[in-house]
Amino acid sequence: MIKERATKQKTLILSALRAVKTHPTADGVYEMLADTCPDISLATVYRNLNRLAESGIIRRISVNNSPDRFDGDTSPHYHLCCDGCGRFDDCF
């Protein structure tokens, strides 16, 4: 695991991701933070999500023909995706 420097943006992104069980995309994380942190850019969200995933602090969920999703829960578990609505759920 790579040690990451904690920045304000990275801390906000990680907190937002760990506060939900919805497995948002990068765009979804940006939307979650846009009101409370209007100075954050979409590029910043993408960059920090990628760094957090590469260092193992969060989990990236690759989805065929869809944007990657991110999970703040790195404990061992599976994910279920509804083919109809696209909803993701944890499966322990």
Which regions are unreliable across 5 or more consecutive residues at pLDDT < 50? Answer: none
**SSE string:** HHHEEEE
**Using only CA atoms, what is the Rg?**
13 Å
Principal-axes shape call? globular
What is the SS-derived class?
alpha+beta
| First-residue to last-residue Cα separation | 24 Å
Assign a percent range to the helix content: 25-40%
Record field, number of beta strands? 4
Number of helices: 3
As a percent range, the share of strand residues is 15-25%
Overall mean pLDDT score?
A: 90
Report on the architecture of this protein.
This protein has 92 residues and is an alpha+beta fold. It is 36% helix and 15% strand. It contains three helices and four strands; from the N terminus they run αααββββ. The strands form two sheets. Strands 1-2 form a two-stranded antiparallel sheet. A two-stranded antiparallel sheet has the order 3-4. Helix 1 (8-18) crosses helix 3 (42-54) and helix 2 (26-34) crosses helix 3 (42-54). The chain starts with 7 loop residues before the first helix and ends with a strand. The mean pLDDT is 90.
Q: Can you tag this structure with a few keywords?
A:
two-stranded antiparallel ribbon; 15% strand; alpha+beta; 92 residues
Structure described in brief:
The chain contains three helices and four strands; from the N terminus they run αααββββ. By secondary structure, it is an alpha+beta fold.
